[in-house]
Amino acid sequence: MVKHCKDGAEGIELDKIINNDEAFFPLTSFDQCKSVVEKALIRQCTEGNGFQKPSPIQAQSWPILCKKRDIVGIAETGSGKTLAFSIPALSSMLSEGVKSGKRLPRMLVLSPTRELAMQVEVVLQEYGAVIGMKSLVLYGGVPKWTQAAELKKGCVDCIVATPGRLKDLINDGICDLSKIHHLVLDEADRMLDMGFEEDVKYIISNCMAKEDGRQTAMFSATWPAAIQEIAMNYMVDPIRLYVGFEGITGSNGENCVDDSLSANKRVNQIVEVIEDRPRENRLRELLRKYQKKNQRILVFALYKKEVERLEYSLNREGFKACSIHGNKHQAARTQALQDFKDGSCQLMVATDVAARGLDIPDVGLVLNYTFPLTIEDYVHRIGRTGRAGKSGEAYTFFQPSDKSHAGELQQVIKQAGQTPPEALMKFGSTIKKKEHKLYGSFGPRGGPMKKATKIVF
């Protein structure tokens, strides 16, 4: 079942969702939420954080999740997806009873990066404390024994984890996921791509089976067709909810959802076609221009070595820059992110490890020094600005070697109601057919290849 809620003239148009004989009415005010969500959690939203009303993704997903249904929630970056999946799960766990003494975790959130896992755990910690539930974050780059010691105490209700570290702890016999009722894949498309799929599959196999009542929720800002079939293997009749995306009409006259990418319309996208050599001088020109506005600037590069070189070069030129990339120790990554968030360093250079999910306040400019490998990563990168209803600006260097992405980039710009530059249009508007990740043009059409079978002669 698919439901889309599109951008209306005065914001997001919300409507009831009907699935077979079930109707899910959006919870457009916190007063309405009190009938299905724990009141203490609502007070934390209103009195603790000053929220006026649920965001569109929260308004539409809370009634679905509170009825124990599986969901795929797709909404723009900065739309409040973390609370969209956290509050119903915490409410459900509270209704089942807060257990004292030794217990097994009942909620698991899988995240693709350490920084995103830490950010989600902060939210779960804040709201869990209101109702007496404890959360724990598990990620690599730090000693395993401290995380293992917390798990052995047996007093953790919610786990937020990156796949690699969690798999290690499962294999060590330290982490028992057999009581996981609530499974969430945050940035689900990234979690299910070729880099994470096998680890995620192994982790889910250690959770409560979907046939035994496990509720699975997947949230992201992008939802490529190649991932959709994989995701269905882990869910039971999920409701797919698109918030803020334009709909299309199918042959039967029903509203369908355009699965093509849609960027945040509050982000002004500027694309400059440029050769490789002039890029660094142009970068410095733009940084001097935008730093006068006293706003945070996030520069994305593709490779770790490239980020290291840019950080060193910019600091030598008199800019105060910090960085996040995979070659840094976790303590240094955490410190760089904190410095950027609190404003003590207003310029950060990063790989795509910082592209997804991170909630950094008041990023005025995202600058793509190197174009990403996929158009989905481009959408996530520029989504670091223009968050929580604010406007932002994204500046992208597009080199001739990036021409295979020209058609997709033009489409994303147009769907945001903006006009692609003439220099970009000269590369043509053809969108290259997605190839199978393992078998290229020879792969199967419309989804992943079937699992290989062993032949015995």
From TrEMBL:
CDD domains found in the cross-reference section: DEADc (cd00268), SF2_C_DEAD (cd18787)
Domain Helicase C-terminal stretches: 282-428
PANTHER family xrefs: ATP-DEPENDENT RNA HELICASE DBP3
Protein name: RNA helicase
SMART domains in the record: DEXDc, HELICc
Compartments, record wording: Nucleus, Nucleolus
Function: ATP-dependent RNA helicase required for 60S ribosomal subunit synthesis. Involved in efficient pre-rRNA processing, predominantly at site A3, which is necessary for the normal formation of 25S and 5.8S rRNAs.
Highest classification ranks of the organism: Eukaryota, Sar, Stramenopiles, Ochrophyta, Bacillariophyta
EC numbers: 3.6.4.13
Gene3D superfamilies named among the record's database cross-references: P-loop containing nucleotide triphosphate hydrolases (3.40.50.300)
Record-linked Pfam families: DEAD (PF00270), Helicase_C (PF00271)
Main location: nucleus
Domain Helicase ATP-binding, chain residue ranges per copy: 62-241
Membrane spanning residue stretches: none
Record's keyword terms, sorted: ATP-binding, Helicase, Hydrolase, Nucleotide-binding, Nucleus, Ribosome biogenesis, rRNA processing
Main enzyme class: hydrolase
Family to which this protein belongs: Belongs to the DEAD box helicase family. DDX5/DBP2 subfamily.
Organism (species): Fragilariopsis cylindrus CCMP1102
Molecular function in Gene Ontology: ATP binding; hydrolase activity; nucleic acid binding; RNA helicase activity
InterPro entries cross-referenced by the UniProt entry: DEAD/DEAH_box_helicase_dom, DEAD/DEAH_RhlB, Helicase_ATP-bd, Helicase_C-like, P-loop_NTPase, RNA-helicase_DEAD-box_CS
